[in-house]
Every structure is written in C-alpha cells, then in structure tokens.
Design brief:
Layout lengths: L8 H13 L3 H12 L9 H4 L3 H12 L3 H13 L6 H11 L2 H9 L3 H13 L3 E9 L7 E9 L6 E9 L2 H16 L2 H4 L4 E7 L2 E7 L4 E2 L5 H13 L14 H12 L16 H21 L2 E5 L7 E3 L5 E3 L5 E5 L19 H4 L10 H18 L3 H14 L1
Antiparallel strand pairs: 1-2, 2-3, 3-5, 4-5, 6-8, 7-10, 8-9
Helix pairs in contact: 1-2, 1-5, 4-5, 5-6, 12-13, 12-15, 15-16
Protein name: Phosphotransferase enzyme family protein
Length: about 400
C-alpha cells in the first residue's frame, strides 16, 4: 500500500473528518482516497471507508513517528466511519497528542547527551563520553523507543541500551514501578530478560532503560513449544517474598467471576456460546464460587509475563531467546497462561511433574485445577483483548472445570 504522509496530510484528514461528520460519506471517501493511495470505486464509498486496514496502517505509521496530533485525526475518522473497535486507541492517541509539543522539545530538540549522560553515567558506574542514538519502532503502549550506543570516558567497554518512553501518568508509573520491583528481587538472567538499568522520570514522561539485545521475533512455528517451555520454567520458580506487594491476578480473577455471576457479559460473547446460556453460567459459577476462591488461595503463585507473544520473545544469532517487556508482569496461580490462543474444546492438561521436582506443591495443584486457572486467565485475557469468540470458548472451559 502506498500512502502520502506529507505536509498536506493533516488537512486531508481534517477535511475528510468534517465531511463525514456532516453526513457526506461519498465526499469524505473521495478526499481520503489520495491519502490511502487507492481510488474510490464509483458508487462504492465503503471501498475506502469500510475497510479499516489502510487507514489503520496510516495511523500506526504516524504514531510510530510521534505524530500523534495527525494520528488522532486518523483514528477519529475510523471511529466516525463505524469502526468502533478503534475507539480505545483513539482515546489513547488523543492523550498523547496533548503531549506532542513537550515530547518534541524533550526528545527530539534536546541532544541525548544533554538529557541522559548524568543518568546513564550513574546507573552504569562509568562517565559517558558519547551517545549515538537511533529510533526504534515502539510497541502499542510505548510513546517512543530509542537505542543508545554508549561510549565511556574511562575506557570501559561500550554498551548499548534501550530506552522506552511512556507517559508519567498513574497507569504507566504503576507499570514502571512494578518492573523495578521485579528486577530488584529477581535475577534478570533467570527470567531470561535483559538487564534492567533503571527508571528516569522527566516531567510528563517516564523512561525505563534495559540492556539492548540483538534479536529477531520468535518465528510463529516455534511459538507453542517455546511458550509452553517458558511457562514450565516460570511455574517451577517460587517468587521471592519481596514481590508480595507486586501486582496480582488473583483479585482480578475473583472480580471476573463476580461479574459472570451477575450475568454481565461483554458485547458479542453470548451469541458465541454453544454449550451454555448465560443463566447456566451464572448458576454454575455461583454454586462453585466459594470452591474456586478457595482454590485461588491455595494454588502456588509464580511470576507471570502478562504480554507474552512472538514479538516479545527475541531470538539471538546463536538461537538463544531473551524475553522483553517485563513492565506488565503479575503474580498468578500456576496454570495461568496455558494454551491461551487454542480454541479447541479439549486441551491437554499441564504436566504437574514438570513443576513438582523444583518446588513443593499442595494437593490442590493438580492438572485439572491448573486448567481451571488457565480458563480463568483465558476468559480474562479474551475479554480484555475484545475477542468475543475466543472469550466464549474459554468461558465454556471455565464452567466445565469449575
């Protein structure tokens, strides 16, 4: 797809948005067509406005380049055109657009040496002589991602670090605090994570720093095997006491159960249910609620990476893997995370023997009960990700294992 992201893009998007809000869908599509590099087929305005993918690609490219003011127009166009699933990211982009001028002044107009040399010198223990900075493509929740090659004045070996920039609001501060707590209590090598170097808060922004790992995303054909092996590794490790005040999924699971007992389902899920009605779900879970809560209290906890996917599992030149993005971890009962993407009605239970050799397990830690934990997680994650069909499959598993 060819897009035109030049100086006239703001005007084109603003004019198309105004036309759409004024009820002239055909004119809005015609104004938008050059931006997307595709003609409007006569009598088919939805060839431009009905297909979200081209405009989403433009919006993502703009966000990746910190052009949030313009990206906001693109996302508002998507929502106005009927793509309601883009509303949440439109709101997030609007928040970032309000900080765009401050971001440019701090991260683009200010030299990296001026901004970072004292901090990086402090966390590495060596005076910084020079920084060579390149920009990387950020993830969905990052405002920006920078790679800094550091040369030291005392002759110490050069290193490379990654800086992830987020907003210093309550949510992102909570994530960065949790990441700092994790690495203060657990060895990064054991987690198969890059070394965590610290956090720097600067006005409306907060940055975390970690050692750079030169790797590529895990190939999809290695996903299931690698993911299962990582889960067994993390399930087998007893979390240190210092993590007790960290984030936990146990109260989240309890709240999800209470919502189901109250017959509260996200839009689109009920229509996807095959084996149970919402009344069946509420009745069964109400009867089993105390039992499930008791199991949640009894099941051993582990450190769970709450955003595991191929993009966060990097493979190095020697075939080894490193897991990144640990700002979204939580304590969770073992079983959590198992085969989340599988929509099959029947899944293999986890192998308890692969955990019991490394840590003492209570009698409640059976493969069956681990599947209940997996089902609680699958339901929670699918709801959070707005995937009604997948949510329905996991809800049916949850009722079955309850």
């Amino acid at each position: 797809m060819t897009t035109t992201l030049g100086d006239g893009l703001d005007a084109a998007l603003a004019e198309a948005l105004a036309l759409l809000r004024g009820g002239d869908r055909a004119a809005a599509a015609a104004r938008l067509a050059p931006v997307l590099g595709r003609p409007v087929e006569e009598g088919r305005t939805d060839s431009t406005l009905g297909d979200a993918a081209p405009l989403v690609a433009v919006a993502e490219e703009l966000s990746g380049g910190s052009r949030w003011k313009t990206a906001r127009l693109a996302y508002e166009l998507l929502v106005e055109a009927g793509h309601a699933d883009q509303a949440w990211i439109a709101g997030q982009t609007a928040e970032r657009a309000a900080l765009e001028d401050a971001f440019v002044a701090r991260f683009e107009a200010t030299p990296a040496m001026e901004r970072l040399a004292p901090f990086l010198g402090g966390v590495t223990g060596h005076p910084v002589a020079a920084l060579a900075t390149t920009r990387m493509r950020p993830g969905l929740f990052d405002m920006a991602l920078f790679r800094h090659a550091i040369t030291f004045a005392d002759g110490a070996a050069a290193v490379e670090v990654v800086e992830k920039v987020m907003r210093s609001d309550r949510r992102d501060k909570r994530r960065t605090h949790a990441e700092g707590l994790l690495f203060a209590n657990m060895n990064a090598d054991w987690l198969m994570a890059p070394r965590h170097l610290g956090t720097l808060e600067d006005g409306p922004f907060i940055s975390t720093f970690q050692a750079f790992f030169d790797g590529t995303p895990l190939p999809i054909d290695r996903w299931m095997t690698t993911h299962d092996e990582l889960l067994y590794r993390y399930w087998a490790k007893v979390p240190p006491p210092g993590l007790a005040k960290g984030p936990s999924l146990v109260p989240v699971f309890v709240d999800r159960l209470k919502a189901l007992i109250a017959r509260t389902l996200p839009a689109g899920v009920e229509a996807q249910l095959r084996a149970y009605s919402i009344d069946d779900v509420a009745l069964i879970l109400a009867r089993r609620f105390d039992h499930i809560v008791a199991l949640l209290d009894a099941m051993p906890l582990f450190v769970f990476h709450d955003d595991m996917h191929c993009g966060n599992i990097l493979v190095g030149a020697n075939g080894g893997v490193t897991i990144v993005e640990w700002d979204n971890w939580a304590l969770a009962p073992i079983g959590t995370g198992w085969r989340f993407y599988a929509t099959h009605d029947v899944l293999p239970e986890p192998e308890v023997d692969r955990i019991g050799w490394a840590r003492a397990l209570p009698p409640q830690a059976t493969g069956y009960n681990m599947m209940l934990m997996a089902s609680l997680w699958g339901w929670h994650r699918a709801v959070r990700d707005r995937k009604p069909e997948l949510a329905a499959r996991w809800l049916e598993k949850l009722v079955r294992y309850a």
